[in-house]
Amino acid sequence: MSVTAALVKELREKSGAGMMDCKKALAETGGDMEAAVDWLRTKGLATAAKKSGRVASEGLVAFCVDGTKGAVIELNAETDFVARNTEFQEFAATLAKLALDADDLDSLAASDYPETGRNVADELTNKIATIGENMSLRRMAMVSVGSGIVVPYMHNSTAPGLGRIGVLVALESTADADALEGLGKQIAMHIAATSPASLSVDDLDPESVQRERDVLIEQAKASGKPQEIAEKMVQGRMKKYYQEVVLLEQTSVIDGETRIADVVANAGKDAGAEIALTGFVRFNLGEGIEKEETDFAAEVAAQLS
Fold first, then answer.
1. Which residue range(s) make up the domain with 11?
2. Same domain, 73 and 190
3. Does residue 216 form part of some domain?
């Protein structure tokens, strides 16, 4: 019997499982609906699906660094209690290691999970069934350098490489690794505290910049100042905006007076080799999850209307 879209839709409604899982279940059972539901249950997929509506905003951020590259992932669960579960911690740490060789979240989900015969997506489903909470492999990111190091830092660490705020800093240089390590740790701690929006002014989202500029222009007009003065006001306030959100323009929280760009330049002079801060990643556990869920709900509603 052929597996039709209508059958897949019906099975999804009955089980709550994912589309591809439903399609596979129907193929394995010759299109028998009840048998397909049982097939999903035996695989733990229907059980996992029942939990999928519950908000998973706790969990762990995990990173792994190997020489000149590093990866960070966010693995969510429903409660902070699970973050202290050894099985969950080992799962998060393994995902971070696997992420080093993944191009993106989809390729990570399709990666073979060690010693199980399953891929990461299927192992996640298995963990949902065995641990008993909804979980989500939410995001991953990587940074790398040609020469130099990637320096990791975890704020509110639960275990080595695991915690709530994970940062990776990429430093391109031929300088001594110890000097780079110290600089990277300092910058990573700063990033954890300030959550910059971008590395440089050029990297800022153009729409965000324009929105900020429009607001400042309206404020300047409302002040009643002459056009020439108003334009200078906007320029000055945009400079302050960059100092607030751009990493290289921010003032270091370590000494409270030196720009991060100058911190890097000074470190290069001391090390006798040029140092370039080429990238960073900052993952804060659960950041923006409620907004994403709202957007997803709106997207689904739009598709169904």
1. 5-51
2. yes
3. no
**Residues 285, 150 share a domain:** yes
- The pLDDT score that the predictor gives to residue 300 is 38
Quote the pLDDT of residue 57: 73
Bridge partner residues of 167 (DSSP):
153, 282
Residue 28 included in any domain: yes
How high is the pLDDT of residue 147? 94
Claim to verify: residue 66 and residue 173 sit in the same structural domain: yes
Can you give the pLDDT at residue 56? 58
CA 215 to chain CA centroid, Å, is: 29
Instruction: State the pLDDT confidence band at 1, using cuts at 50, 70 and 90.
Output: low
290 and 155 housed in the same domain: yes
At residue 81, the pLDDT reads: 87
Give me the number of domains the chain comprises: 2
The CATH number given to whatever domain includes residue 148 is 3.30.479.20
Q: Is position 261 within any domain?
A: no
| Per-residue three-class SS string for the chain | CCCCHHHHHHHHHHHCCCHHHHHHHHHHCCCCHHHHHHHHHHCCHHHHHHHCCCCCCEEEEEEEEECCEEEEEEEEECCCCHHHCHHHHHHHHHHHHHHCCCCCHHHHHHCECCCCCCEHHHHHHHHHHHHCCCCEEEEEEEEECCCEEEEEEEEEEEECCEEEEEEEEEEEECCCHHHHHHHHHHHHHHHHHHCCCECCHHHCCHHHHHHHHHHHHHHHHHCCCCHHHHHHHHHHHHHHHHHHHEHHHCECCCCCCCEHHHHHHHHHHHHCCCEEEEEEEEEECCCCHHHHHHHHHHHHHHHHC
